[in-house]
Specification:
By secondary structure, this protein is mostly beta strands. It has strands spanning about 5, 10, 20-25, 35-40, 45-50, 55-60, 70-75, 80-85, 90-100, 110, 115-120. The strands form two sheets. Strands 2, 4, 5, 6, 9, 10 and 11 form a seven-stranded mixed β-sheet that branches. A four-stranded antiparallel β-sheet has the order 1-3-8-7, with no helix packed on it. A hairpin with a 4-residue loop joins strand 7 (about 70-75) and strand 8 (about 80-85). The termini are far apart.
């Protein structure tokens, strides 16, 4: 039973940065791609990016191009999402997901974390 737990969300000023963590239990992170999604208030769930098993980074959302990166620490079973130059539109609930193969479609993701709130405000 794979479980994902996100952490690191909170209040961030515009132009600031943050790092979200995704800790995996019940399975080995090295066997899963990690895709991060977010959902802004009143908007659809949006796939941001994915990290393949070979650590190739796949960008899904043009809105975060050049401002986001995913990394993994297999020894700690933890993946990280880094965001910088944050904007008001980045506000939302951020989710970590896992599946054998990268996909931007939410229904292709096998496991989901509970989400962590990110609020960009001055």
């Amino acid at each position: 039973q794979v479980q994902l737990v996100e952490s690191g969300g909170g209040l961030v000023q515009p132009g600031g940065s943050l790092r979200l963590s995704c800790t995996v239990s019940g399975g080995a992170l090295e066997h899963y791609t990690i895709a991060w999604f977010r959902q802004a208030p009143g908007k659809e769930r949006e796939g941001l990016s994915c990290l393949r098993l070979d650590d190739v980074y796949i960008l899904y959302a043009d809105s975060v191009a050049g401002r986001s990166a995913i990394s993994r620490d297999n020894a700690r079973n933890t993946s990280y999402l880094e965001m910088n130059n944050l904007r008001y539109a980045d506000t939302g609930v951020y989710y970590c997901t896992a599946a054998p193969i990268c996909s931007r479609r939410w229904y292709d993701r096998d496991f989901w974390g509970q989400g962590t709130q990110v609020t960009v405000s001055a």
